[in-house]
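ok trying again, last paste got cut off:
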Amino acid sequence: MNNRKITSGLIFLFVGIVLLLDVLDIIEFNWVEIIKYWPLLIILGGINMLMPNSQYGHIAKLGFTCILLGFLAYTGFVTPKQDFLSRFLKGSNIHISTDENNDLADSNYSHNLSVPLPDTLTYAKAYFDMGTTNLHLSDQASSVLFEAKNTSNSYFLELISKVSKEGIPQIHLDGEKKNEGKSKNNRTLIKLNKDAIWDLDFDIGASEVNFDLSTFKIRNINFDTGVSSVKLKLGMPVGHSQVSIDAGASSIEILVPKNAACRIMSDGGLSTISMDTGFRNKVDGIRETANYPNAKEKFDFVVNGGVTSIKIKQY
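nice, full thing came through this time. structure:
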């Protein structure tokens, strides 16, 4: 095989793998730091031209390539991230303050947030607009309506609470990663008050969601997610409840009680949906439990997925 192709292949493979892991927030890689070492690529090209076209020459070329990639990998991993403009101005007397940085320092961003109980409580809505995080329902909130906490010093939560014209509390929880920090393996822990009937709306990226809602009253759930792992455990439906799933390449598992009336509607596509034997075919793309037609309280699952694996199990 042509040695130049092997060398180029190793470089492309290295860049591709690191880019993928960085985008998924599995690693933190400082691309700005390694750009300044671009002359090493010229040196590598010169070595490939000067080395003899022999077995030992091929081994030497591959060895130099691996050493170079190892050095770049080490530099990118251990050097803290810094935005390009800050690095460009490093050493000067110029200081730039942006609105974004001021927002991060604002008291709205915190690791422990809560919403007090309203005077009257029937329904409540919670919207989750989260970046990469492990989102878990950790416990029930008894003295407040809602609580949120994150375990990472580099992941910031912003909580906005208001009341609609109908008197329904509306909670918006946003999460974002600080640019120069590491947020992988962070956990966002949520507590909900069990006395409210909840509508939950999730707009999440590459995240892990684990919510045991079996003891809560859930009216509607909406999931809009990209590459995520989602596990939900539901209790009995409240009225005519709907669970909408619009997912990219995700893995979703939903547990429902055996005696809950359920209908599953899917647009097909490339998604794979598996369900227990308690669901029967009605028409193409629709399955339901035997007790669904006459039930007053029921679940409607509406699935619009890309390359998604969805499992619906009864417990």
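cool. The first strand starts at residue 109 and ends at 110. The first helix runs from residue 3 to 23.
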